[in-house]
Design goal:
66% of the residues lie in helices and 0% in strands. By secondary structure, it is an all-alpha fold.
């Protein structure tokens, strides 16, 4: 439980707030803030919510009930996208299964998984449309759409390179949302 005070203090400092400013903004007694940060006191629900509101964080992320950090799982999660090379829409199905089974157990997986799945859904739709329009233009003998084939190849390469790159970044750094979020379908 002593991690909560440490996390609050760390986030407060990152936001550039003093204990007095946090106490005033959250309408929590200054002495209570000091006790929480010094791990002398365990914050209650309302106090945690008031502090989290000012710090612009979720109480759930702060408390991490039963959650643990697992970088290896996060790396496998990023690389699971590559299944699309063997199974159509595998880039959505396998990560979705991995996400659903562990999103409430691993720190950060809920947000990162939603980010990855949103990107993969948009990528799959856009890639399908690109290759379909290209195929129709080939059948109809329209030559000006040959650039769509190169766009399709570029999209495929992008979806191979990004997961590998993000898996390496996850291995070496803190996990965070990395994929561009064009449309938010899953939250």
């Amino acid at each position: 439980m002593n991690e909560i005070g440490k996390k609050i203090k760390e986030i407060r400092k990152k936001k550039g707030l003093s204990q007095e400013e946090l106490a005033e903004s959250s309408k929590v007694n200054l002495r209570t803030i000091q006790r929480i940060e010094n791990d002398e006191n365990e914050p209650r629900g309302k106090t945690v919510n008031l502090i989290c509101e000012v710090l612009e964080i979720n109480a759930e992320d702060l408390l991490d009930y039963g959650k643990y950090e697992d970088k290896n799982y996060m790396i496998v999660f990023h690389l699971s996208v590559l299944v699309f090379l063997a199974i159509p829409v595998g880039n959505i199905i396998l990560p979705l299964i991995l996400w659903i089974t562990k999103k409430d157990k691993i720190i950060g997986l809920k947000e990162i998984g939603a980010n990855l799945l949103n990107f993969q859904i948009v990528w799959t739709i856009f890639t399908f449309i690109t290759i379909t329009v290209y195929a129709i233009s080939k059948i109809m003998h329209y030559g000006q759409y040959s650039i769509l084939f190169y766009l399709f190849i570029a999209l495929y390469i992008l979806n191979i390179v990004l997961p590998i790159f993000f898996a390496f970044k996850t291995r070496n750094e803190k996990t965070e949302k990395r994929y561009p979020n064009l449309i938010k379908l899953i939250s």
